[in-house]
């Protein structure tokens, strides 16, 4: 086995395992000092080395940045693959680090987002409108949840539950029975602490929703021009109202059992 004497600790050690391999074109290719001595040296001088590296970066910042940009341009595919791989392997770490940064720099981030929005207002609005048209249901649920949370009201309705509710009314307005673009009407108005849950949402056309507004169903619907005893019974049966009282556990069991079967 080849050995070598370290000039620092004066010990004769195995060449392949105790010395760093540096350059095959210089001497025998291995570092002059053993690994232990090299680590001790770096431990003692790490502050000095760090300061020197920072000073070099300050003095050559433009040169270093230009070199980095040029490298990324010349190796765009390689860099893209590296970033994707890093993001996949460190997703939770990156998310935690981003959340911590935003928490510590709230004002700075708020200002940055505001400036970016002001410069790209038209583009951002166009993208948001396009997304809203393509994801109408998700947008509606998101908006309703935001309103409910701002009033500290329970909000648990999901897209699947909403699709199920519409299906029970044949994708028609529950109040007038017409086929139209359906909105989510709170059976108990949100102003009266009506929850945004599967046991308080009824499919309604825009006209009926506006007419009902914040009125009490039992006072408003019998006087409504599209009143139907059949549709009233269907609504109350779906929500399991008996003598003006809702059987919440029955509603929840019914909806979740149907979703599970589907």
Q: How does this model look, in words?
A:
With 262 residues, this protein is mainly alpha-helical. It has a domain at 137-261: Herpes Virus-1. It has 13 helices and eight strands. Strand 3 and strand 4 form a beta hairpin. Helix 9 packs across helix 13 (248-261). Mean pLDDT is 87; it is low at 250-262.
Outline:
This protein is mainly α and 262 residues long.
- What are the low-pLDDT stretches, counting only 5+ consecutive residues below 50? 250-262
CATH fold naming of the domain at 137-261:
Herpes Virus-1
The global form is elongated
Architecture (CATH level 2) name of the domain at 137-261: 2-Layer Sandwich
Number of strands: 8
Rg value = 34 Å
Euclidean distance between termini CA atoms: 71 Å
Which percent range fits the helix content?
55-70%
Strand ordering within the main sheet? 1-2
SSE topology string: EEHEEHHHHHHHHEEHHHEEH
User: Beta-strand percentage?
Assistant: 5-15%
The largest sheet, given as strand count, sense and whether it forms a barrel, is: 2 strands, antiparallel
CATH class of the domain at 137-261: Alpha Beta
- Backbone structural class: mainly alpha
Number of helices: 13
- In round numbers, the mean pLDDT is 87
